[in-house]
# Entry
Amino acid sequence: MRRAQAFAVAILSLLAASDVTSATEKQGGILRVYHRDSPASASIHEEATYSTNVPFMPVFNNLVIYKQDVAQNSLQSIVPDLAESWAWSGDNKTLSFKLRQGVKWHDGKPFTSNDVKCTFDMLMGKSAQKFRKNPRKSWYDQVVDVTTNGDFEVAFNLKRPQPALLALLASGYTPVYPCHVSPGDMRTKPVGTGPFKFVEFKANESIKLIRNPDYWKKALPHLDGIEFTIIPNRSTAILAFVAGKFDMTFPTEVSIPLLKDVKTQAPNAVCVVEPINVSTNIIVNSSAPPFDSLDIRRAMALALDRKAFVSILFEGQADIGGTMLPAPAGLWAMPKEMLETIPGYGPDINANREEARKLMQKAGYGPNKHLQVKVSTRNIPIYRDPAIILIDQLKSIYIDADLEVVETANWFSKVARKDYTLGLNLTGNAVDDPDQSFYENYSCNSERNYTNYCNAEIEKLFDQQSAETDVSKRKKLVWDIDKKLQEDVARPIIFHGRQGSCWQPYVKGITIMVNSSYNGYRYEDVWMDK
Amino acid sequence: MFAYIVRRLVLMLVTLFGISVIIFVLLRIVPGNIVDILFDAAGFVDKADKANLERELGLDQSIVVQYLHWIGGLLRGDLGYSYVSEKPALEEILPRIPITARLAGLALLFSAMFGIPLGVISAVNQGTRLDYALRVVSLSGLSLPSFWLGLLILMASVSLFGTMPIFNPNPQTFGQALAIYCVPALAVGFRSAALVMRITRSSMLEILRQDYIRTARAKGASETTVNYQHALKNAILPVITVIGIEAAFLIGGLIVTETVFNIPGVARFLVEAIRWRDYPIVQNLVMFIAVVVVVANFTVDMLYAALDPRIRYTD
# Structure
């Protein structure tokens, strides 16, 4: 089954790739895309939203990158970018790169290994210059230092083997920054080596990029430029796309019901629905009653009817799984048979809920004594809507929950204060790799481990899988960890969402990544057949 | 008269000072600041980084020091820097003002252009089918939310003409320029026009029953002269008051209209700035709006005297 799925993904990837190369690419044209909101800044390293990646990834290059016309990110789809090649040392503790020569920053200065060192020293918090925010510092916890050997060689020296480092370096979240431009300037006037140069960023209005004529990949990019018009109102944005004011919607931003409207009103538009590797999950405050009781946490997990969430919110087009993105898009998901052995994932919802009610009764609750709780969530529809369904489902096990909507400005501080009982949360994964997901969300010392779940045994397994170089052995370890995380009700995963993207038929060379929403926006291969 | 104007000006300054204090305090009472939001977006908090950023933005200082810093800057013409874009606040605010001013001006123009004549027509045809039809139109104008009307216009435009008047900073033709401002101005001005029409109608009905109107008719003046020269001139005062108030309240309607039509004006910018707790932008913009409202009120009061010889402001 899995082989067949992998084969299907490979065929789809090949088809996507052939679409790019089958016709003669035309040069020129400005790609007009609407943007869903105004990003906080232009600095990819300082932000944690793809609202920044989408418009600014075309300005930069990475050391390595996921091949932009392959929909599924994997170690096999990583190709050189600013690095010409890479090599692991014999003990797998040093990852060295040979860098491309003759590359220039958009301001004309030459790119050297020093820029790579500067970037990663800043990310690791080792340089005098600091980012205002450094949300992915933990990605480099295993890196001791970055050393240069001349102008065109650089090495990452690790504490222990970490094969996933290459996957992290290939993410759209990992561009190389110039040494000579301050972090402040990178927030407002980013300078890169990428296919497009930054022109202007007018907050709440537009972002403009122009073709880099000196791009080191000759004959690329095909487009003369890209213009993002910021339209926070989704109805206006979709109408404008339908009216032909835009060549493309904001990627993976069109909801399933809206997609139907688009297809009705613009039947020629090319639309795809893909997984976005964002899970909707429940954060449980297990440090305070009543959810300090494992029985009550398990009862809650058993009460979930995940299929109902998927059918109500996504018309059936979303995926059920554990922490890792489900197959076939996800590379690390546990097999379905294994998933169904986890309490709450079995197909018989009534039996699950009966078991949940028994656990609740054991904890002192029942038909005459309901547990009163609040479900807190952000005041955004994608958070609010599943929270309402959750509240409805919890009623079946004697839990009466009220919805508490929290403004975005106050959400994280509330969660950090542990000022909640149950929270409905969304977790986006930049890279489909367990290192990113496990360490970020479940490791004892992670700042993004909102629930403070901490299990010494699991922590050891995190390190074990991270250092494992044999992919099949690592997969088995990952499945066991994921299963254990679900059984511990560490952060119950409800579903993994899917979203739509549309573009006009004359736009060619677009590939929507199926296992990350953060890595596929270089746009150097995109062209317009008009 | 002169002393009255001076007194009003002093009162305006006191009002503006009061508003500045209220804005400043209210903004800081609302939970969360820009630093919380920036870290919230990143999904984590590094206490040291957070403290650094608060220090960098001056948010670690006492509220009094922050207020004095702001007011001092304002008096020197230094509006500070936007926390989000890191550009001077003036540079961010200034280009957006003409956009909103054009939209607001057009909306007010439409409200007067349609509201006053239709109000007069409705009044002079009281009880007729035309009057009923116009009253239904005015009632619908008051009942339809402008965001809904705006979306409806956009949908109709796409479905009928295959295009829509979305904002373009550099319109190629006069027609384009007209469309990008007129359509949203109609959407936001419809409510004001309806209100103006109702006020004009009721004010006209009252005036038309006055003795001097009967006298004018008895003297053989035409209906047009009676209605527009004798009646409307005296019925216009409450209408001007309403237009003045509408000018002040228009900003509320413009927020949704600018959002629906994606117009990068001051109103939408203000909402975004509040969302980000971008204090320098919010404080200065609200002060700007307060100045507009206070000046509009003052202008309306002065217009009373100009339009009605019976009104004299004594010292």
